[in-house]
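Anyone else keep sequences and structure tokens together like this?

Example one:
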Amino acid sequence: MKLDKVYEEKVYAGVLGKIIGVYLGRPFEGWAYERIMEELGPINYYVNEKLQVPLIVTDDDITGTFTFLRALSDYENNPDITAKQIGQTWLNNIIERQTILWWGGVGNSTEHTAYQNLKNGISAPDSGSIKLNGKVVAEQIGSQIFIDGWAMVSPGDPEKAVSLAGRAASVSHDGEAIYGAQVIAALEAQAFVEKDINKLIEVAKNLIPKDSVIYKLISDIQDWRAGNSDWGKAREKIAGKYGYDKYLGNCHMIPNHALIIMSLLYGDDDFQKTLMIVNTAGWDTDCNSGNVGCILGIKNGLQGIDNGPDWRSPIKDLMYCPTANGGQTMTDALTESYKIINIARGMNGESIVMPKNGARFHFEMAGAVQGWQVDYKNNLNPLTEINNSEGHSTEGERSLEIVYKNVSSGVNSIAYVDTFFPEEIKNLKGHAKKVFFHYNFIACPMLYSGQIVKANIKADADNNKPIFCRLFIKFYGKQDELITIDSEKQLIKPNNDVEFNWQMDVEDGNPIAQLGVKIESEDIASGKVYLDYVSINGHPKTSFMRPPHVGLLQRGKPLKDKPAEMWRNNWVKAVDQWEPMWKEAFRISNNNGRGMLITGTPDWKDYTVSANITFELVKSGGLAARVQGLERYYALEMSSNNKLRLVKMLDGLNILKEIDLDLEFQKEYKLSLKVKKNNLQGYLDKKLFLEFNDIDSPLNCGGIGFVVESGTQFTDEIIVS
């Protein structure tokens, strides 16, 4: 299949279908059919409000799907990527007991078992094998719920999708779980070019062994469907022959795979009906629904999703992907779609696609709002609307339309996007909070002080009068309340546009939580403006410290006010200890092995990171730059064997250069690590000691962090310049 606009739209529809399916099924995950019918009835639409839980949540289905696919971009989009390399991507992105996986215990959670094997040096595919983990553990559902991305980079090529899916699934699974994942991948790959659902299923079935349970299962359901339109009877037969009681473990592949096939065969090629069947049928609803949504999204495109109730407006494209790469947590369906598109293009030797010169928000797909929403809480004008609009773009084909009505003095129209920990998440309580944080939410901000926000806004030709526009940000300040900073306002006349180049300056240590647009007028004004794009440019120029308004926690003293926490949530914590009560802002300890504290985004390239660090009983410790996870970064370190060294973590620790230097515990050292193109420079007390040009698979971008191995180090401040 050509990697053209048709392909791009199908990828976007597949990603949307995946997250819609997950959000739809998540509130009643694990419920039996009988309970669903008794308490909810047929699942025709989102039920989160009825169950009083958030709609948009962190979820292993979403995070795993879009994280593990990063293995391809990590390894130069090589279609011959190995299971071992995919396993390395697991280790790079997963923070033990915090991100992506269900941490249910070795021998109980399949993925936890596989992760522990990887951590202990057992490479994939052995890490997920029946030989090592046993048949029950190896054949649970996880392999198919993470598989969609491998299909979307293989459009029209189910054999390729099956091969990639087999390698990806083998990191954690084996046996029937491999075959189930391969069927899903084949269905999705072939769905790019085949419209007939029966032919799709037949193609996918014939790419796995005929003596497998999955093959027989699919054949049975095909037979049951012939001449029978009652999916309920098929569900009863599945429960009788392939039900949960027939297979051991917490969430076996086979029963859930059966419900996926059943819903596709009985759903009449209708997005809503098919999702209704797979969710009403019960068991692992979010997983099954996510796979089904992705298959139909790819096959029928955006039109298929939109041909029914409004699935898209409530979710606003939003996705959360919390990993060790916290700068990629705040994401959206369109952003992740273009990552998939560009992996596919890279695998085929084609140039990458960068809508609107790589703008963070470009809206270049019908209906895409990329997480932007109207501020109804703080907006005095409830009549504001946002929509994706064709045209009104200087550099592309689409834009974000902001409709304002009766704007006047003190009554603004406001649209914004969350760039960090959303305020509504921070304020969750009780059952809703428990549900949301079932999978941990870890994030770094999308933008930082010192960076430049560039945006283009155009006024509609039919506007009744000129208006003023300005950009704004909100950051978490005292007591974690949001504080607003505005750019200069600009006058926009009808049919004219303005460009913003705004360098943000935020008080040190406070994370930026929102970015938005305000529409203002001194007279009563109504009309439309079009947000063409928003780019985040340049590198931060900031210090990270305990903000001045945050006092020390005094042990033994009752707290009058809850201390601010968001400045700490700014950081991805992958160390054993980092507590708020110590006088040093960053007093971090890792008991065994290497631990990290990380912030920043993948966009940072050339900069210097500096800190005055004191070491205590460490094996090694220091500063990291161009951090792309726990297993991909550069570092300037001091070690207890009396070395100052430049290291590169990439598929293991590589010492690039080192010199002898005595390390004294309880002595402060000023460390600076400068990265510019392929050149690395390590400074101690402002003197250049180490320099290295890395030309062998260099790491060219990423965030910053502390690294500490088997001990403790501390400082009050870390500076990026």
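And example two:
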Amino acid sequence: MRQTLPVLLCLAAVSSAAETYSNAAIRSGPEPGVRFSSGLMVCDETLRNGHWMNRYWLATGLIKPEFHLPAGRATPDSFELAIEGQELGGSWRWEGASEKALHNPEALDVAVTLASSARPIKLVVHTVMTGGPVMVRWLEITNTGAKPTAITRVSPWSGELWDTAQYRERLAPGQAAFEFAYAQYQEWGHEGAWRFEPLSNTTKTVAGTRGRSGWGHPTFFARNNATGEWFVASLGWSGNWSMSLTGDEQPNDRARLSFRLGPAAADPVLRVVAPGETVKTGETHMLLMNADLDHVIQALHEHVRRNVLPPPIPGREYQVESNHRGYIVDHEDEAGLKREVDLAASVGAEEFLIDAGWYGPEPNRWAQNVGDWYAGAWLPNDITPVREYARKKGMLFGLWVEIESVGSAARLRKEHPDWVLTRNGKPVGGGRQLDFANPAVAAWAEAEIARIIRKYDLDMFRLDYNTTVEEGGNRPRDGFLENTEWRHVEALYAMFDRLRAQFPRVIFQNCAGGGGRLDLGIMRRFHNTELSDWMRGPRNLKILNGMTWILPPEILLRTFGTEVGEHATDGDLDQQLRTTMLCRPIFRGLSPSMDEFNPIARRKIQQAVREFKDEVRPIMIGSRVYHHTPAPPMMEASPWLVLEYATPDSRRAVVGLFRTSHEGDSTFRLFPRGLDFGRAYRVKFGNSGQTVEIPGDRLLQQGLPIRIENAMGSELLIFESK
């Protein structure tokens, strides 16, 4: 018996592809299975000898005939699940499959139900075909037994990616069949540091071990050098994780690549499952394309925009923001906050957010007072007058909250010492982390956020998370010692799912010590995110360059100003502003007061904001991103960094060119990639203000030489079709 449900649509939305296609072919019989088709991406999986395994992947949209498929070769399972240390691969039996359309009309969810003969476990394998070259998978795990049991290992998606024949004739001498890129660092201020490594008869394992998805990211890019194909896998999970890739170049001229990617924990038990309980893993997002890296990235961006991010709130999209700087100055009272509102309004900000430090019994102790979410005594009229003042200036208003943490001086910590995260009975991370695995704590946090939003009638809510707990907490549960991270992430996700539904007009911002949680799991719950706390160039540029491999630029927040001291002061003013303008600008610490605001600097900032609103922002929203310098080394000098954003219709583009060191030539010949040969373009040069008209064929064939003499110098080009 075969079942098929195709979904074929021609879409007029902002997209690099005009068509979407989703199809599931469900097979019954001795080896039941499913062939998933999404765009030109095809994945065929089957149940063989109790193993759910991959038969093949294709990036062409074509289907392999049954007689071409090997009948006996075993491949790694397409997911992994261990219960109490026992791997269940080899024990699965087919229970059936179903399919349903989702809210996105081009998407189709296929649910395959399996049962284990080794353990009382029922499993539903969900695979969503998005219509493009990305599929999404997660597992629902149900304990059908009478006793609690424990998940000790899980990977929502794993298995063999490529089995490439006659690969050697297509490679240069000494070239590996496969290579992959991964986030090289797990430290603050190193977001987006991609490192390429070959995979030749070796296994490479990378892990996030900071108690969050981390400044390094649970994502890899794998390239088949023999076929030109790319695989991208990204785990939507905001806790610790582990991934491994194995390259196998065989004597029979076949090269194979397999992988696993899933959550990880320092304790053997990731999650206890009660009798009758069903738990859900994080999502794995998988992309397969035969294309260059930029087109792969563009397809990933389109998937994130269409299928991951909450939809933008009409009238509140992608605005210029200003934050107060109260936690780094001696004192910030109501008058001081209103001065900062004036400064924000003077440069054209559209949002004003009060950052850390507005709460607690004493000023200037923002970290120690976290957890007491009441305005401090230095604000006798509370926050409301500042909010109303900002709104009179035409700005939306928001507050910063770090709801998962509690400071050493907080009243909350004294009243509920049992609410902090513990490991083997001792507080973790200096006792700052609240334990959301405790339902009472999670319920308090959700109610507290709702109270703050209602009390202050917020337009924006900014979540931060500065605590590093590494191994995380644990506690005895039903005879097991369970790591608490899974339950914490579950509670966090469910909380913000409900809060967004409860407050549909509130903009929810994500931050975690900068970019410490940029995974697709957290981004499914938030409209935009802080990119990084690192402000010093050229690393801030490299962070932006790297993170736009995964996330579209219009949702990335970048702070400009002097409040973080030395991190923000390198490079000339134009370079600093342009770095900020290539994502969502946040202004913070512009000047102590309007009287002390350098008028020349103020005019430059005002001009940059106007340019962002009038020219850059309309291009950036929904843009195709081109990385002319794809992966410069994060911690080493590199001569240039060049980013291009182009509208899908190729009528407009913005290009930022930055000379990041004195290494190399002072001239960069730019060949714009997002323009149209057949058009003529008006090109505006930011440094000179001059405008010239250039035919598209000349731009694309001969290039445009841009000379920048000084290190940390920059140029901003605006292209507009005549």
